[in-house]
Write a structure and sequence with these properties.
The chain is mostly helical and 50 residues long. It has one domain (3-46). The protein is 82% helix and 0% strand. The protein is flat and about 35 Å long.
Length: 50
């Protein structure tokens, strides 16, 4: 991997980190019931993937 390649990937890594932080923040703000519903929704969407 060259320095140029690393430089090109840096914005993508930053975007991923920012999206992750946003998601964590959203889930942290949910109440117990809301978190349970969100988990069920994620499981329903991803249950076909293994």
């Amino acid at each position: 991997m060259t320095a140029h390649t690393i430089h090109q990937r840096s914005p993508a890594l930053h975007t991923s980190a920012a999206a992750y932080a946003d998601a964590v923040s959203e889930y942290a703000a949910l109440g117990r019931g809301e978190l349970r519903e969100a988990a069920r929704a994620v499981m329903a969407v991803t249950s076909g993937r293994c």
